[in-house]
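Explain the record.
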Amino acid sequence: MNLRGTAGLLACVGMFFAFALPSLGQTRPQSTAQEVRANFEYVDRIILEMAKDFPEENYGYRLKPEMRSFGEVIVHVASGNAYAAKAGRGEKVKWDELDPKNYKTKADVVALLEKAIADSEAALKALPEDSFAKTAEPWLDVTEHSAEHYGLLVAYYRANGIVPPASRPKPKQ
């Protein structure tokens, strides 16, 4: 091989690495099912963290008298997850809210939310990937509902002079 051929070969190899290497470090785009599952689970996780973190003595706190208490909002969010679990399994279901009066302590409310999350996430994981080509419901509606209430729960934290868990400084690693 002459010098010109070697230079051309090196240029081709260099071009290959210049264009191929950056794409090797990239991850493949997630499927619709993966994105729906990830978002649903993320919102569940941050709300459950808040339910566990918020002081029990403040569970009855209301931003205004006509609004739900912190604990009642958590029960309401759990209702959405219970709805998603049933709808995701194909059961006929209405948005039947769980009655907050049945959950008197922080431990009761947190246990309810943990169960509702476990049931809904199990139903979501059981769905075949191709089912999301038809619809992403009820998962998108329930994710949006929970995310809206996450914002409300942040207001409960701030009104009580507490920094929400997601806003706290993270330890350096």
About this structure: Confidence is low (pLDDT under 50) at residues 5-24. Helices lie at 3-24, 32-53, 70-88, 106-126, 139-159.
